[in-house]
Amino acid sequence: MSKNRRSTVNRLSAENVTLAYDQRVIAEQLSVEIPDNSFTVIVGPNACGKSTLLRALSRMLKPSEGRVVLDGQTIQSMPAKKVARTLGLLPQSSIAPDGITVGDLVGRGRYPHQGILRQWSTEDERVVQESMRQTGVAELADRYVDELSGGQRQRVWIAMALAQQTPLLLLDEPTTFLDIQHQIDVLDLCAELHEEQGRTLVAVLHDLNHAARYATHLIALREGRIIAEGAPKDIVTAGLVEEVFGLRCQVIDDPETGTPLVVPAARKARVGAGTGAGKAAATEAS
Amino acid sequence: MKTTNRAVRTPGGLSVRLDVRAFTVVLLLLVAALAASVVLIGTGDFPIPAADVLRTLFGEGNAGQEFIVNELRLPRVLVGLLVGASLGLGGALFQSISRNPLGSPDVLGLGQGATAGALTMIVLFSGSANQVALGALVGGLVTGLAIYVLAWKRGVHGYRLVLVGIGVSAIVTAVNGYLLTKSDIVDAARAVVWMTGSLDGRDWAQVWPLLGLCAVLVPLVLSNARGLRMMEMGDDVSYALGVRVERVRLLLMVAAVLLTASATAAAGPVSFVALTAPQLARRLTRAPGPNLPASLCMGAALLVVADWLSQRAFGAEQLPVGVVTGVLGGAYLLWLLVTERKAGRI
């Protein structure tokens, strides 16, 4: 919470943005501040606009109104490579080219630091090795990416994003398709990057309990609006979960970390109350 | 493929050793293309030994040889080299942009589009060779534009591009069939020869425009090759890395369409060079990425070798070069499909 320094201007923010795909409006007049040096996690039900917001923050999606500001400048007006040296993104959809090795793929993260006459410096080499070491994939350097397990592959992609050496790193559902052990593994890695290197991380996560455990700053979205934001301990309550996800639950202290732990109410209790399940279905349909 | 990637282990060697292999392949292919060219120039009703060909090329031959080499055979070989290089490079660009070996100009219908332009000039206007070439160029460009517009959906994507291309190709093929049935027998014979792809009777008038276009487009394309490499990882990743994805893609597609259309205008729709050259080059360099220089040299070498085969391999009878590339390329495509299927990708 102490890291949420509202008094100073944060490096990344969205100012009154309206986000839409073609004619379909996802969010209107949305303003978001990403606190510097935070591990910000965006949560919300499906189709609440959390990935869309992340795409806007990473200048993948141009707001139809308002603007995203990076270091005081409208992000769209900045040179592409300059943005790429400040802000990295691990998207959901990425393709490992046929026959590419781990080392080669991670090395491609150096692209924004390179030019036609500066293709592979010793600094590039050092950073790539460092990134692979941090993510624990150094010993896989000459393996083909196709051969790796899902967890290893995700680490490789994170290593590529690290090699970009950006103070800000955005991750779009980095734990999707991973089993529980590898989910925790990836989140631990994120926490490490945040705590030990002071990078500002922004992640979209599906699992509210993971979000509550790892985030230093939580943003709860619903239908394109921020319902609550702040430290998980301060904002995650049964009332908020019901409001955002339409799910009746208890919030208890996580026995391991003391962070809020969301325990959904038993089915009978929810069906008996009537509103919970219906509301969830309505949210899903929207 | 496994063994070469051992080279990608050590610091410093990481990119350098890959480059060395790719560079060596490019050099060898270049040498092969030029050597085949010398042999090809020496080949014909009046054979000239390779040494004499070289001497003549450097301006020290006798008058008779000079006429045969410089006026008759050299322009044909140069057109072959340039057409092959353009097709190889254009094919590599298309395959990389569509992330699909089938996304090459042959399959997308660019050749058919150029044919439609050429047939229009031959059948409807009985046009001269230059008018036919111009018609082919325009036909190819219009087809390329149509494919781009139809495949556009927040950027052009692999399968969509291939499917739209196949659809366009089917329509244009039907138009070509219609034009052929409308034509009289003389025009039809001329059209069929053009459609097979041939280097017969090509002279300096075809060399200069092709050379000029390549001189502009090849450096332009190569200077954007790094962005294209990034784009193979998907639009989102490359965008996040600072590649201006749409701009690079549009630029490279326009260049690829121009290269392919002008090559087709010069030599007819020489089949399958654009499809096979990048795949063969890739298997030689064993490097991921579009392998643009290697594809370019491979295309040039393939076309000149195929032209030599078409003149020599079948006894006295000369075949249009497109027949040879078609047979070789078709066989290669089948092999590709079988191996891809074994690898579980199709």
UniProtKB/TrEMBL annotation, chain A:
This is ABC transporter. Transmembrane segments: none annotated. Residues 12-248 form the ABC transporter domain. It comes from Streptomyces swartbergensis. GO terms for biological process: iron ion transport. Coiled coil: none annotated. CDD domains: ABC_Iron-Siderophores_B12_Hemin. It comes from the Bacteria. It is a peripheral membrane protein.
TrEMBL record, chain B:
Coiled coil: none annotated. It is a multi-pass membrane protein. The chain crosses the membrane at residues 20-41, 77-95, 107-126, 132-151, 158-180, 204-223, 250-272, 321-338. The keyword Cell membrane applies. It comes from the Bacteria. Its main location: membrane. GO terms for cellular component: plasma membrane. GO terms for biological process: siderophore-iron import into cell. The keyword Cell membrane applies. It is found in: Cell membrane. Belongs to the binding-protein-dependent transport system permease family. FecCD subfamily. This is Iron ABC transporter permease.
